[in-house]
Design a protein that fits this description.
Chain lengths: ~325, ~250
């Protein structure tokens, strides 16, 4: 009875993780584009982190590019000026993203609904113009150029090479999986369940004795951490930081990916990142105004397929297993 | 005395929704609040639980002042409430609704690196309430899929799952059929044995069968308080509420 009503207890690592790892590892072999697989996985990390807010807490944040862009700038600057270990810069980018998210989250969630959304949007514009104007640090419109991508020394005398496309993909793949395992753990923790309760009914959650504001700030902080890490990876990936990493359009990228893939699960945003990135790549070759088509796809999903691609897949799977079970009963 | 209000007042821009209410709830009491629509009953609850702040007056819980506390802080003092309109987690299962309610009173609800199913005491508490409210067969159903009566029962069960010292119920039988009401009365009688309760209710059968004390509110003011036998005979109550149309 308990298992039926609450589901099975999840271990840190199980079959789900292995399947996901295996499927992602296929990307470099299936895609004709050399650098796209790493980019997809970086965006997937951003989208999964964003979905902690939208899908699990019910917060539509338009400010994710702040944490992504800041993470990218910090990793870029630390590599350029101090030559730190890339793993350390990624961790610092995560911490920086988390701190910014705690601050911006705290200020934004003082309002709810549309006012909350507008606040996150305004903060994103603020961050963008700061990056745009502060040329001495960020390079402004030109971007932060010449970010090095040093090999990753795991222990003295052993350096993991990350210069080749596939080598770098593997590095991103490992960071993504580690992050994903932790995020999945959070979703299945008592804390994560309270986030879902807030999504369902914030007033009742508060009446039960949970400090909803504190939980929302925590959700922002965790989301900001992983988004900051994704930003750091992005700087390593393109060996520069373009100013649009912190622009509103990057926030909307994560939103579109999550909605197209499906916000109801952790896997939806990954599928969304894969589909949207591949579609952009193909469409941009076909037509200069390809963003228009992407917009139409987005609208279709929001209007007619609220569960996203993952929702369609899991519904079909449920129907399939239900009919099979039905056939078993009545021969 | 588990709950005491002193001159509790809420003024909504000139409308006195709650007007200098002094109320005392004894330990173990089942204290009903009755009164016509708009008498200020739900507003009174909302002040008790910190959803809205009073214009004037104080609330004491076991002689500790709780006025000015936020709703989650009031809940942490183990004051549970149900709502007049169902306020459930509709996409979560019945058991998960109850577990969430129970877990807020247990340690580890801020833990984010351990599976929630490893915390056995809140799950145990949720199962106890499930049995008490006779909901075990529907434990795995989503709250939104229940019948109206089922959702009403869950509404009360969630309030109960935090194991409150004081339970506030806002019209637990509203919208129920006569048979469903009889069942709810039986359940409420059962849970009243273990704790103090304040119940807002329109159903007189329920009020008369469970109450140890009744307070009558009219236009935000207390017009009578006493045991049911006394309230029944009160002339002012007859005029304002029970008889209704003596003009």
């Amino acid at each position: 009875m308990i298992e039926k009503a609450l589901g099975k207890r999840k271990n840190w690592i199980d079959g789900e993780i292995f399947i996901l790892a295996g499927l992602l590892l296929l990307l470099p072999f299936l895609l004709p584009y050399k650098t796209l697989p790493a980019e997809i996985v970086i965006y997937a990390l951003g989208a999964v982190s964003f979905n902690l807010l939208l899908g699990y807490t019910g917060l539509l944040s338009f400010g994710q590019a702040i944490f992504f862009g800041s993470g990218a700038y910090l990793t870029g600057l630390l590599l350029i000026h101090f030559g730190l270990h890339p793993m350390l810069t990624l961790a610092l980018s995560g911490i920086f993203g988390a701190l910014l998210a705690a601050l911006i989250g705290f200020l934004s969630i003082q309002q709810v609904g549309i006012y909350f959304v507008m606040l996150t949007l305004a903060f994103n514009q603020l961050a963008f113009f700061m990056a745009y104007q502060w040329k001495g640090i960020t390079g402004g419109d030109d971007g932060l150029l010449n970010v090095p991508r040093p090999d990753v020394s795991l222990f003295p005398g052993f350096e993991l090479p990350v210069q080749g496309n596939f080598q770098f993909f593997l590095f991103v793949w490992v960071i993504f999986l580690l992050s994903f395992i932790v995020i999945r753990r959070i979703i299945h923790s008592p804390f994560g369940r309270v986030l879902m309760a807030i999504r369902e009914n914030p007033d009742r959650t508060r009446a039960l004795g949970y400090n909803v504001i504190q939980y929302k700030v925590m959700a922002f902080t965790l989301s900001g951490f992983f988004t900051g890490v994704a930003g750091g990876l992005y700087a390593l990936f393109i060996k520069m930081v373009p100013v649009n990493a912190i622009e509103l359009v990057t926030s909307t990228d994560f939103i579109i990916m999550s909605l197209v893939g499906g916000t109801g699960s952790l896997f939806g945003p990954i599928i969304g990142a894969i589909v949207v990135k591949i579609a952009s790549e193909i469409l941009s070759l076909l037509w200069a105004r390809w963003l228009f088509i992407l917009g139409v796809i987005f609208v279709v999903f929001v209007l007619f397929m609220r569960g996203g691609i993952w929702g369609i897949l899991s519904d079909s799977w449920n129907k399939f297993t239900a009919t099979r079970a039905g056939q078993g009963e009545k021969p | 005395m588990i709950l005491r209000t002193v001159n509790l007042t809420k003024n909504f821009g000139g409308l006195m929704a709650v007007d200098h209410v002094n109320m005392e709830v004894e330990e173990g009491a089942v204290h009903s609040i009755i009164g016509p629509n708009g008498a200020g009953k739900t507003t009174f609850f909302n002040i008790l639980t910190g959803e809205i702040s009073p214009t004037e007056g104080e609330v004491f819980f076991r002689e500790k002042k709780i006025t000015g506390l936020k709703p989650h802080q009031v809940a942490q003092m183990r004051i549970g409430r149900s709502f007049q309109l169902n306020s459930l987690f509709k996409n979560l299962t019945v058991l998960e609704n109850l577990r969430l309610a129970a877990h807020s009173q247990h340690s580890g609800h801020f833990n984010f690196l351990k599976d929630f199913r490893s915390f056995t005491s809140p799950i145990g508490q949720a199962r106890k309430v499930l049995e008490e409210m006779e909901m075990t067969p529907i434990a795995a159903k989503k709250a939104g899929e229940l019948s109206h009566a089922g959702q009403r029962t869950l509404e009360v069960a969630i309030a109960l799952a935090g194991n409150p010292l004081l339970l506030l119920l806002d019209e637990p039988t509203s919208g129920m059929s006569p048979e469903e009401t009889i069942r709810m009365i039986r359940l409420i009688k059962k849970i009243a044995k273990q704790r103090a309760m304040v119940v807002i209710e329109h159903n007189m059968k329920l009020v008369w069968s469970i109450s140890t004390v009744i307070t009558v509110l009219h236009q935000g003011q207390v017009i009578a308080t006493g045991p049911p036998s006394q309230i029944e005979k009160n002339e002012e109550v007859q005029k304002a509420y029970l008889g209704g149309t003596t003009e």
